[in-house]
Design goal:
The protein has 342 residues and is of the alpha+beta class. 41% of the residues lie in helices and 19% in strands. The strands form two sheets. The protein has a seven-stranded mixed β-sheet, sandwiched between helices. Strand 6 and strand 7 form a beta hairpin. Helix 2 runs antiparallel to helix 4 and helix 5 packs across helix 10. The chain is rod-shaped and about 130 Å long. Bound molecules: adenosine-5'-[phenylalaninyl-phosphate] (FA5).
Length: 342
């Protein structure tokens, strides 16, 4: 019996040393040390032994089991170390390989100009307001001194949705909303960027949907000089410190006096070229002093408060700044155009 135990030890250690796989090693543990294994089988005969013989058989069986366990542990450590080495070898990173490029988007030039104008006005103490693109006739026209039937409504051909609602034709209704919400108390200093819509025929300089940035300042001591200074700063920040502006008399029902604002042409510097049609000047926005009727309709005392307002066409600014010749480029989503602004 003792011989059989020694034979089993040699047999097990042989098999253990030949195995190359952790699962196989575990199977060998079950095979030799499990309850139904050959060592337990041999030990069943112990009951027929003399006490002295049984004692030494017990000791030998323990020695054999310990030797097999130790061989399994050693092999396990060896196989685990080998597995880690193989994993490391397989996962080697080649740091010399070129990286995969990620396609990074680019800010649309129209958005870039809007952002730039927003930052400029925020730096001058303005806050940014927004309003709905589907607007009530009341805010788009009536509160801006354009009652129903007023001939100046034809200046902005509109997309009506119902008799009383339309796609806003300018960002000026936001100033009407802000004035109304202020309940007759200034000061107000806001800009409102956003999309506007008109039944204009699309061509190189007109679009049926375009972007305006409205500005409104209302306080107790606001003059035309404040408006002019603000617009000169705007022109110089956007187009260069050597720009000049000129104010031409114009008409808007919501401002009195009203002006159209031109900036010296950035291509020819004012001598006259194809961009400025030989005049040296390019129109960029409409502006004026807020009409007393507009202030009064929103609850402001026009003897105490005055204000100025302006409406910038963002596409026109972007076209001048980047030399873009056709406004439709902003809306055709041609990546060859957009990627030039990377
Ligand atoms: C207005 O819309 C006034 N609400 C501006 C204003 C605000 C005046 C506050 C006074 C006080 P106007 O229709 O001129 O004004 O438009 C303003 C600017 O929008 C124009 O100077 C031009 O740059 C731009 N614009 C007008 N129509 C179009 C169009 N169809 N496509 C692209 N840009 C346009």
């Amino acid at each position: 019996m003792l011989n059989r135990l020694k034979e089993l030890q040699i047999e097990a250690i042989n098999e253990i040393s030949n195995t190359t796989d952790l699962k196989e090693l575990n199977d060998l543990r079950v095979k030799y040390l499990g309850k139904k294994g050959p060592i337990q089988e041999v030990m069943k005969n112990m009951k027929d032994m003399q006490p002295e013989e049984r004692k030494s058989a017990g000791a030998v069986s323990n020695e054999v089991k310990n030797a097999i366990s130790a061989a399994i542990e050693t092999k396990k450590e060896e196989l685990e170390a080998l597995a880690i080495q193989q994993k490391l070898a397989n996962e080697t990173i080649d740091v010399t390989l070129p990286g995969r490029t990620v396609n990074i988007g680019v800010t649309h030039p129209l958005q870039a100009v809007t952002n730039e104008l927003e930052s400029l006005f925020i730096s001058m103490g303005y806050t940014v307001e927004e309003g709905p693109e589907v607007e009530w006739d009341h805010y788009n026209f009536e509160l801006l001194n354009l009652p129903k039937g007023h001939p100046a409504r034809d200046m902005q051909d509109s997309f009506y949705i119902t008799e009383e609602s339309l796609l806003r034709t300018h960002t000026s209704p936001v100033q009407a909303r802000v004035l109304e919400a202020a309940k007759g108390k200034g000061p107000i200093k806001i800009i409102c960027p956003g999309k506007v819509y008109r039944r204009d025929d699309d061509d190189a300089t007109h679009s049926h949907q375009f972007t305006q940035i409205e500005g409104l300042v209302v306080d107790t001591d606001v003059t035309m000089a404040d408006l002019k200074g603000t617009l000169l700063e705007l022109a110089r920040q956007m187009f260069g410190q050597d720009r000049e502006i000129r104010l031409r008399p114009s008409f808007f029902p919501f401002t009195e006096p009203s002006v159209e604002v031109d900036v010296t042409c950035s291509k020819c510097g004012g001598c006259g070229c194809n961009i400025c049609k030989g005049t040296g000047w390019i129109e960029i926005l409409g502006a004026g002093m807020v009409h007393p009727n507009v202030l009064e309709m929103s609850g402001f005392d026009s003897k105490v408060y005055q204000g100025f307002a302006f409406g910038i066409g963002a596409e026109r600014i972007a076209m001048l700044k980047y030399g873009i010749e056709d406004i439709r480029n902003f809306y055709t989503n041609d990546l060859r155009f957009i990627n030039q602004f990377k």
